[in-house]
Write a structure and sequence with these properties.
The complex is a heterodimer. By secondary structure, chain A is α/β, with parallel strands linked by helices. Chain A is built from five helices and five strands; from the N terminus they run βαβαβαβαβα. Chain A has a five-stranded parallel beta sheet with strand order 2-1-3-4-5, sandwiched between helices. The mean pLDDT of chain A is 86. Chain B folds into six domains: 186 residues, Four Helix Bundle (Hemerythrin (Met), subunit A), CATH 1.20.120; 107 residues, Histidine kinase CheA-like, P2 response regulator-binding domain (Alpha-Beta Plaits), CATH 3.30.70.1110; 64 residues, no CATH class; 55 residues, Helix Hairpins, CATH 1.10.287; 181 residues, Heat Shock Protein 90, CATH 3.30.565; 137 residues, CheA-289, Domain 4 (OB fold (Dihydrolipoamide Acetyltransferase, E2P), Beta Barrel). In chain B, the strands form five sheets. Chain B has a five-stranded mixed beta sheet with strand order 6-8-9-11-10. Chain B starts with a helix and ends with a helix. Classes of the chains: A alpha/beta, B alpha+beta.
Chain lengths: 121, 756
C-alpha cells in the first residue's frame, strides 16, 4: 500500500510542488494549509509522514509538531520541517519540539526524496 | 489550467485577471522551458520530462499568483502599520508574507527575488523581536520594495540597468537598517558550499562509525534502522549492535533507545556522505566517524617502484643487465660528495635519516601484515583449560622426576616446566583485552548521566592500554557503572554549588587503569563533594551497622558505604540511591578475587580503587598443609611466613593474636577452623597475608612452597561456602582448597565483634 504523506504549507505553490514530486514517486499526498487544517485533516485520514512549513498563520509548524507529539498516533511518526538555511535557530527549535529532520528550501525532487528516505521505511 | 489558477484568484480581481494571466502565462512558458533545458534531467523518459515541464510551468504560474496575493497583503499591512506601528500581529503578517515569497521564490528559480527579499525578511524578523523599531521610513521603503518585487515577478528576463540600479539602491537602504539593528546574523551558505567540494571520489576507504543514539531518540520519530540501512547501501558494511545497556525487563522503558551501533564501512563515498546519514540526529546523538584505512597507503608502496624495476617488469630490459649496470653505479650520495655539492657529513646524516624512515616504514608494514585475527572466545577458553591440564600434568611429572635418580628425566621435567610456564603466560596474554573499549562506554554513560542530572562533567581516562583478562573486564562493567553513577549523583555537585565553592564549573571524573605487580589497579576519582563522615556515621548507627559509641577512623567510616543496604542519598533518584550499589560493587570485585579501597576528603573529592588480579584461571599460590590436607593461599597476598612457638601462644592467653614487630595480628588456626584430625607439630608456621593494609595470619603445619595453581571453580552446590574461593588439583591427584583471604578477614572481624 502506498505510503501517505501530508504536506502542510500556507503557500499553495510549494504544497503543489511537493505533492507533484511525491506523487511521481508513488506516494499518496494530503495537503493542508496550516497547522489547524493539518490537525483537522489528520482526524479523517492518517499519514505516515508529515512535512510542514515553519511560518504559517493560525498554527505554525512548531506548534503543529508539539500538538502531533502529544497525540498517541503521531508520537513516534516522522515529521519533517521545511526551513530556509538562514533559520538555523528555528531548525534547532523544531528539533527540540520533536521534528525528525528538516528539508532546506530550495530543494529539488531528488533532495526531497533523499530526505524522505531517511525517515520513512 | 485556468481552473487550477482560479483557486488563487482574489475576489474582485478576477475580471482583470484573464488578460494579465495570459501575459504572465506566455512569459512563464518561456522561462520554464529555459530552466528545463538547463536542468537536463536524464533519468526519466521524454514523455515524463514533458509532463514535468508542464507541471513545472503550471506551478510557476501558481507561484506568481500567490506571490502577488502576498504582495497585496503586504501592501495592506503596511498601510495599516502606518496608523498602528506597534501592532505585533501586523508585523508578523508582513514577515510571513516576505518569508513565503522568499521560500517559494527559491523553489521556482526566482533567485533575484530571493536575494532581494532576504534582507527585508531579516529586518522584519528583527522588528518582530523588538530589536528594530517600525518607523515611517521603513514602511515607505517596504512599499517601494513591494513595487519592486511586483516588477521582478512579472519580469524574469534580464532587467535593464536602470531597473537594476533601483533594486540595488533599495537593497542598500534596507541593509543600512540591518546595520543599525543587531546585524550579526550571517548565513552559513558559503561553508555549506565548501563542504560539498571536499569530495574525493573513487577512493575506497574504510571507516569506523560509532553511533550512540540519545536515549530519547524515538521521541522525535527517528528510526535508527533506516539510518543503518542507509549505511549498508553505501558499500561493504558490517554493523554490530551493542545491547549491554538494555536494562532488566522490569526497569525497561520501551520508549527509550538503549542500543548503540558500531559499523565498519568500506565505501567509495566521501566522508560527508556518511556524515549526511546522521545529519538529523547529529546534535542529539553521539556519532563518531573515523577513517581507519585508505588505499592511499597502498598507493605509496606502488609509487615507490624504481625505474629499473618498472623496465624489468615491462620486459624492456632483463634483470641480469640491470644488476650488472647497478653494480657499476655509484650511490647518489657519493656522486654528490664527489661533485662537491654536499659535504660527506651532510650526506651521512641524510642517509641515517633515510635508514630510520625505512625502518619505520618496514615495522609499520610488518605490523600491518601481522595485524590481528579474530578467534571465537570459547576457543580461547578451551585453550586455557588445556593449558591448565598441562600445568597439572607437568606438576606430576616434576614430582616423579624429583623422586627418581634419573638425571635425564629430571632435566626433561625441568625443560617441560619452563615451557609450560611460558605457554601459560602466553595463553593468558592472548585472553587479555585493553581497557579502551570499556572506557569509551563510560564516556557515553557520563555524558548521558550528566545530561540527566544537569551537571557538567568531564571524564578523563588514563591507561586505556592496560590489559586485563577478558572475563575480568566483562565482569567489571557493572561495578564500574555503579561507582561512576555514584560519583555523578552523590559526588559531583551542581554547577551553582561548584561555583559557590570556588571550584571549576565542570566536575572531573578520572578513570584510570595501571599495573601493580600481578594486579591491575582501577581508580575512579572525582573532584566532587567527598564523603561526609558524620552523615555516614549517623546513618550507619541508624541502620545498626555500628554501635553508637564505636570508635572508627575516617577510613573505616568511609568503608561503611560498602555495607549492604547503605545509602545516604536524601532522595531516591533515577541514577542511584536504590540502596543497592556499593555493596554490590564490593561483592562483585571480591568475586573476581579483587579488593576495594576508598579515600575521600570532604569537599575535595572521593577516589575508589579496585585492585584486581591479572588473570583468573591460573595463579601463583603458596602451598601449605595441615595434617593430610593441603591448602593454597594466593601468593600475591602473602606477606611473610614466621614460626609460631608454644611460648607465643601461651603469652596471649588463648587469644588468637600474635605480635609481629610491635603489630598485633589476628590469626586463624586452620586445624580448628576446618576440624582437621591429628596433632599439630610443636613449632607451627604462621603465614601472614595482607589485603588493603589489613593483615591476618593462618596457622599451618608446614609451608610446602610455591605452586602454580590452576583454579577449578567449586560447583554450584558449594556456592554458599564463602571462605573457599576454589580448588586445585595437585601433582599427586589430590585436591587442595584455595583460601579466600578477604572472606577470612571479614570472618575474623565478625567473630571478634560477636565476642565483644
Amino acid at each position: 500500500m502506498a505510503k501517505v504523506i501530508m504536506t502542510v504549507d500556507d503557500s499553495a505553490s510549494i504544497r503543489q510542488m511537493i505533492a507533484f514530486m511525491l506523487k511521481n514517486e508513488g506516494y499518496e499526498v494530503i495537503e493542508a494549509e496550516d497547522g489547524v487544517d493539518a490537525l483537522a485533516k489528520l482526524e479523517e485520514r492518517s499519514a505516515d509522514l508529515i512535512i510542514t512549513d515553519l511560518n504559517m498563520p493560525n498554527m505554525n509548524g512548531i506548534e503543529l509538531i508539539k500538538n502531533l507529539r502529544a497525540n498517541d498516533t503521531y508520537r513516534f511518526a516522522p515529521i519533517m520541517l521545511l526551513t530556509t538555511e538562514s533559520q538555523e535557530e528555528k531548525k534547532l527549535e523544531g528539533k527540540r519540539a520533536g521534528a525528525t529532520g528538516w528539508i532546506v528550501k530550495p530543494f529539488n525532487s531528488d533532495e526531497l526524496l533523499a530526505c524522505i528516505r531517511k525517515v520513512l521505511t | 489550467m485556468y481552473q487550477k489558477s482560479s483557486y488563487l484568484i482574489v475576489d474582485g480581481r478576477s475580471y482583470n485577471f484573464t488578460i494579465s494571466k495570459f501575459l504572465v502565462q506566455v512569459k512563464t512558458d518561456i522561462v520554464a522551458a529555459e530552466m528545463e533545458n538547463k536542468k537536463e534531467t536524464k533519468r526519466k523518459g521524454r514523455s515524463q520530462e514533458d509532463r514535468n515541464a508542464n507541471v513545472y510551468r503550471e506551478n510557476v504560474a501558481i507561484f506568481q499568483e500567490e506571490a502577488r496575493e502576498r504582495l497585496n497583503e503586504l501592501e495592506a499591512v503596511m498601510l495599516e502599520l502606518e496608523s498602528r506601528p506597534d501592532d505585533s500581529d501586523l508585523v508578523n503578517r508582513a514577515f510571513r508574507a516576505m518569508h513565503t515569497i522568499k521560500g517559494s521564490g527559491a523553489m521556482f528559480g526566482f533567485d533575484d527575488i530571493v536575494s532581494f527579499t532576504h534582507d527585508i525578511e531579516s529586518i522584519y524578523d528583527l522588528v518582530r523581536e523588538g530589536q528594530i523599531e517600525m518607523t515611517p521610513e521603513l514602511i515607505a521603503l517596504t512599499l517601494q520594495a513591494h513595487d519592486q518585487i511586483h516588477k521582478m515577478l512579472g519580469n524574469q528576463d534580464a532587467e535593464t540597468e536602470a531597473e537594476n540600479s533601483i533594486r540595488e539602491a533599495l537593497s542598500r537602504a534596507f541593509q543600512s537598517f540591518l546595520f543599525v539593528g543587531a546585524a550579526e546574523e550571517q548565513t552559513v551558505e558559503p561553508t555549506a558550499a565548501e563542504s560539498t567540494q571536499f569530495e574525493e571520489p573513487n577512493e575506497t576507504r574504510t571507516y569506523r562509525i560509532r553511533f550512540f543514539p540519545a536515549t530519547d531518540l524515538f521521541a522525535d520519530g527517528t528510526n535508527p534502522i533506516i539510518l543503518l540501512n542507509e549505511l549498508k547501501e553505501m558499500g561493504d558494511c558490517q554493523i554490530t549492535a551493542n545491547t549491554e545497556k538494555i536494562p532488566d525487563l522490569d526497569e525497561i522503558d520501551p520508549e527509550s533507545c538503549y542500543t548503540s551501533w558500531d559499523a565498519i564501512l568500506t565505501t567509495r563515498h566521501p566522508l560527508n556522505f556518511i556524515e549526511d546519514v546522521f545529519i538529523f540526529v547529529d546534535d542529539s546523538s553521539d556519532v563518531t566517524i573515523e577513517m581507519i584505512e585508505s588505499d592511499h597507503a597502498f598507493e605509496t608502496v606502488a609509487f615507490d617502484k624504481k625505474i629499473g624495476e618498472i623496465l624489468v617488469e615491462r620486459g624492456d630490459i632483463n634483470e641480469k643487465d640491470l644488476e650488472g649496470f647497478l653494480k657499476n653505479q655509484e650511490p647518489i650520495g657519493e656522486k654528490l660528495a664527489a661533485a662537491g655539492i654536499a659535504s660527506v657529513p651532510q650526506i651521512q646524516s641524510a642517509l641515517a635519516e633515510q635508514k630510520a624512515l625505512r625502518q619505520l616504514k618496514e615495522s609499520k608494514e610488518q605490523r600491518d601484515t601481522l595485524s590481528s585475527i579474530r578467534v571465537p572466545s570459547d576457543k580461547l577458553d578451551k585453550l586455557v583449560d588445556l593449558v591448565g591440564e598441562l600445568v597439572t600434568g607437568q606438576a606430576r611429572l616434576t614430582q616423579i622426576a624429583n623422586t627418581s635418580d634419573n638425571i635425564s628425566l629430571v632435566s626433561i621435567a625441568e625443560e617441560i616446566e619452563r615451557l609450560t610456564a611460558e605457554l601459560r603466560d602466553n595463553t593468558m596474554s592472548v585472553r587479555m583485552l585493553n581497557f579502551d573499549t570499556t572506557f569509551n562506554k563510560f564516556k557515553r554513560l557520563v555524558r548521558d548521566l550528566s545530561h540527566e542530572l544537569n551537571r557538567e562533567v568531564i571524564l578523563k581516562t588514563v591507561g586505556g592500554d592496560t590489559e586485563l583478562d577478558k572475563k575480568v573486564i566483562e565482569q567489571l562493567n557493572d561495578p564500574l557503572v555503579h561507582i561512576i553513577r555514584n560519583s555523578l549523583d552523590h559526588g559531583i555537585e551542581s554547577v551553582e554549588d561548584r561555583m559557590a565553592m570556588g571550584k571549576s564549573k565542570e566536575g572531573t571524573i578520572e578513570l584510570s587503569a595501571s599495573y601493580s605487580g600481578a594486579h591491575v589497579l582501577i581508580l575512579v576519582r572525582d573532584d566532587g563533594i567527598g564523603l561526609d563522615t558524620d552523615t555516614i556515621r549517623s546513618k550507619a548507627i541508624e541502620r545498626g551497622l555500628i554501635s553508637a559509641d564505636a570508635k572508627l577512623t575516617d577510613h573505616e567510616i568511609h568503608f561503611l558505604i560498602f555495607e549492604a543496604g547503605f545509602t545516604t542519598a536524601k532522595t531516591v533518584t533515577n541514577v542511584s540511591g536504590r540502596g543497592v550499589g556499593m555493596d554490590v560493587v564490593k561483592k562483585a570485585i571480591e568475586a573476581l578475587r579483587g579488593s576495594v579501597d576508598i579515600k575521600s576528603i570532604k569537599g575535595e573529592g572521593t577516589s575508589i580503587t579496585l585492585k584486581l588480579p591479572l588473570t583468573l584461571a591460573i595463579i601463583d599460590g603458596l602451598l601449605i598443609n595441615v595434617g593430610s590436607e593441603h591448602f593454597v593461599i594466593p601468593l600475591s597476598s602473602v606477606k611473610e611466613c614466621i614460626e609460631l612457638t608454644p611460648e607465643d601462644v601461651a603469652a596471649r592467653h588463648g587469644r588468637h593474636l600474635t605480635n609481629i614487630r610491635g603489630k598485633i595480628i589476628p590469626y586463624i588456626r586452620l586445624r580448628e577452623q576446618y576440624h582437621i584430625d591429628g596433632e599439630a607439630p610443636e613449632i607451627e608456621q604462621i603465614v601472614i597475608t595482607e589485603i588493603e593494609n589489613q593483615q591476618i595470619g593462618f596457622v599451618v603445619d608446614h609451608v610446602i612452597g610455591q605452586h602454580q595453581t590452576v583454579i577449578k571453580h567449586l560447583s554450584e552446590v558449594y556456592k554458599k561456602v564463602e571462605l573457599i574461593s576454589g580448588a586445585t588439583i595437585m601433582a599427586d591427584g589430590t585436591v587442595a582448597l584455595i583460601l579466600d583471604i578477604n572472606k577470612h578477614l571479614q570472618y575474623v572481624e565478625k567473630e571478634s565483634l560477636e565476642q565483644v
